[in-house]
Design a protein that fits this description.
The protein is an alpha/beta fold and about 180 residues long. The protein is built from six helices and seven strands, in the order βαβαββαβαββαα. Strands 4-3-2-1-5-6-7 form a seven-stranded mixed sheet, with helices on both faces.
Length: about 180
């Protein structure tokens, strides 16, 4: 079963018809959904999927317990190095979902550096991602970092853009791109 990482900005707390339509396509295709436990987009997505009684969902979280699990789905706790806080703490689970997913769907408010990091992590691993840009009220698709640039999906903070070009902090390994893997006998 193919797996999709769905996430987004905490400022996006309601799903419009366009977003619900994309979610319905995912359900029609019976994809496994990986979603975080944050308020905002994660919780709105969870609420919609719970209303539709969709069973193929796993909620990822860090810390001692999830903040949200609207559908009482299976949980996956991602361990974090000691001493992490804020963005660094929560980005560990997001990176794990990007590694395990085959593709992604992100709901971006145009400002969230976490959502932008998720988009970049997916495309860097050559995984397609549909990005809903809330300010433009439209979805765009990206498969490569170059496509992300041409779509105008950028962080307002230059330091974040620079960070996206380098390795993740904490020594979290990147999954090698699939086309570069070789089978050995």
């Amino acid at each position: 079963m193919k797996t999709v990482f769905i996430g987004g900005s905490r400022r996006i707390s309601r799903l419009n018809d366009q977003i619900r339509s994309k979610l319905a396509e995912i359900i029609d295709r019976q994809l496994q959904i990986l979603v975080g436990d944050a308020n905002g987009a994660d919780r709105a997505i969870q609420t919609q999927l719970a209303e539709w009684h969709y069973p193929h969902v796993t909620v990822y979280f860090v810390g001692s317990r999830p903040r949200n699990n609207e559908g009482a789905w299976p949980l996956l706790r991602v361990p974090t190095p000691k001493g992490l806080k804020g963005f660094d703490f929560y980005s560990v689970k997001d990176r794990q979902m990007a590694i395990e997913a085959d593709c992604g769907m992100m709901l971006w408010d145009g400002e969230s550096r976490g959502t932008l990091a998720n988009v970049m992590n997916l495309v860097r691993d050559e995984k397609p991602v549909a990005v809903y840009i809330s300010k433009q009220r439209r979805f765009v698709s990206a498969r490569t970092p170059a496509e992300v640039d041409t779509l105008g999906i950028r962080s307002a903070e230059p330091s974040i853009a620079e960070a996206m070009q380098s390795e993740l902090p904490l020594g979290i390994p990147r999954k090698p791109a699939r086309k570069h893997r070789r089978r050995t006998a």
